[in-house]
Amino acid sequence: MLQTLCYPILTKDDAPEASRDALQRIARAVGGIPNLAAVMAHSPSLIEGFVTLREIIRRNADFTPLERELIFLANASANGCEYCQAVHATFAAGAGVAPETIEIKGPMPALAFSNVR
Questions:
Q1: What is the pLDDT of residue 103?
Q2: 65-79 and 44-60 are packed helices; what angle lies between their axes, rounded to 10 degrees?
Q3: Which terminus of the chain has fewer CB atoms gathered within 10 Å of its CB, N or C?
Q4: Span 39-54, mean pLDDT?
């Protein structure tokens, strides 16, 4: 039988000290702490790796921010990840994609940011 593990969504104040810098960096980059990052913060190594990889991709990619988010959104849709669709729809809208271009099949984008502080 498959067991589901549930981790609380952390804030920058209750996350382990070693996770706080990465949480602050992602919050500055996207305007808040996405719930996925807030859960990853339970492991300082995981959140640091995630945020660092995200920074490297954005710094070194040959795609514009708009193109990048459309690629991430297409990937999320292909994988059927409703959370990823919501987050990347939000990011795509922030990068300038017209709302009518984004088709969401899942939760509304704002739900991915219930932890914004």
A1: 63
A2: 130
A3: N
A4: 96
**pTM, 2 dp:** 0.74
Contact 70, 76 (CB under 8 A): no
Alpha-carbon dihedral angle through residues 57, 85, 26, 23, given to the nearest 10 degrees: -130
Q: What is the 3-state secondary structure (H, E, C) of the chain?
A: CCCCCCCCCCCCCCCCHHHHHHHHHHHHHHCCCCHHHHHHCCCHHHHHHHHHHHHHHHHHCCCCHHHHHHHHHHHHHHHCCHHHHHHHHHHHHHCCCCHHHCCCCCCCHHHHHCCCC
Rounded distance, CA 15 to CA 43, Å?
A: 9
Q: What angle do CA 25, 31, 33 make, to 5 degrees?
A: 65
Q: How far is 105 from 86, CA to CA, in rounded Å?
A: 9
| CA quadruple 10, 14, 16, 22: dihedral, nearest 10 | 60
